TrEMBL record, chain A:
One of its GO terms (molecular function) is metal ion binding. GO terms for biological process: cytochrome complex assembly; protein-heme linkage. SUPFAM superfamilies: Heme chaperone CcmE. This is Cytochrome c-type biogenesis protein CcmE. It is found in: Membrane. The chain crosses the membrane at residues 18-44. Gene3D superfamilies: Nucleic acid-binding proteins. Heme binds at H129, Y133. Its main location: membrane.
TrEMBL record, chain B:
Keywords: Cytochrome c-type biogenesis, Membrane, Transmembrane, Transmembrane helix. Its main location: membrane. This is Heme exporter protein C. GO terms for cellular component: plasma membrane. InterPro entries: Cyt_c_assembly, Cyt_c_biogenesis_CcmC, Cyt_c_biogenesis_CcsA/CcmC. It holds the Pfam family Cytochrom_C_asm. The keyword tRNA processing does not apply. Residues 13-172 form the Cytochrome c assembly protein domain. The chain crosses the membrane at residues 12-31, 51-71, 83-102, 117-136, 148-168, 188-208. The keyword Transmembrane helix applies.
Amino acid sequence: MTAADVPAARRRQLPVRLLLVAGVVLVAVGVLAVAGLQGSLVYYRTTSELVADPELPGQRVRLGGLVVAGTVETTAEGVRFELTDGVQDVPVVNTGQPRGVFQEGQGAVVEGILGTDGVFRSDVLLVRHDNEYRAPADGTGRPAEDGG
Amino acid sequence: MTSPSHGTVDRLLCAATAVVASLAVALALVVAPTDAVQGEPQRLMYVHVPAAWLAYLAFAAVLVASVAHLLTRDLRWDRRAQASAELGVGMTALAIALGGIWGRPVWGVWWVWDPRLVTTAVLLLVYVGYLGVRGLGDDRAAGARRAAAVGILGFINVPVVHFSVVWWRTLHQPATVLSPDPAPMDPWMAAALATAVVAFTLAGALMVRRRLRVLASADAPTAEAPRPPTDAPAEALVVVPRIRR
């Protein structure tokens, strides 16, 4: 069809250009994959993993879990609360400003180091909300099921 | 003069899009309640999710059209693949941008290197690459075949993006509706979301149809030559003046 009309010389240039573009795409994807997924295939550790792994204390890691209801308090150091995966609770002191919709009973991911005293000191706090969407039950801004 | 079938379908699509989109705006901004946890920013769901859905749908269309092109070598299938890919790239970029605007007030950050966001960025790059590959060299038919190969292989990433929130730990929440483990959603929120998805899908179909006519006119002088003479000039007469001026 039309391929036959194109001079052979023109078609011979293609592999070089194709390789160049393929190379650029590969490098871009590779950089993304290494920079991104290396640290984030396990985007955060659970509280049980943090406590069980002897390598993790002293290292800067991300820790995720649910903010235990009734544990959030503002101190001179920052916001203090406990994160849990339902099995293991870890006390956290976050010196950074809590952003997002941080609240008790919701998920949070903190970045920092577990100290020898068992307290996780973080300077980055992200909110990990769930996939349920509902209206406030009573105008307090809280769903009814979140009470307990 | 416009061929009556094209014009009628387009006008119907256009009217349907306008009606459904207006309904979606009313449902999303007025009827649907404010989310208990996230507050007003949660309303971004009604544009973020449809954009992602339309991107998936467009890339599925690229897959089907690419297979059809390799089987038939018909450039009409290649144009369908290209128009769908252009829509998909736009919608992926839109979903990423809207996700950032949603993430900043709710998560606290515009962007995180979590698997959902990274795989979505890769998806965007792959299909930008797909559009780039088509233009390599002057051989229209060879470019179409290369693009078809990328269009088929690239689709592998779509389920990876969708299930990234299930397969890996992410900051991004799992899907609520299209999920192996659906979660509760307020019925009015669900209605707003469903209506917005239909509105996006209609608008996407309209855009692809219009783009297809532009692409057909670009192919017309060479590739369309073997087509029956009654068909080709009619299309060329419609589109060329409208686009070039």
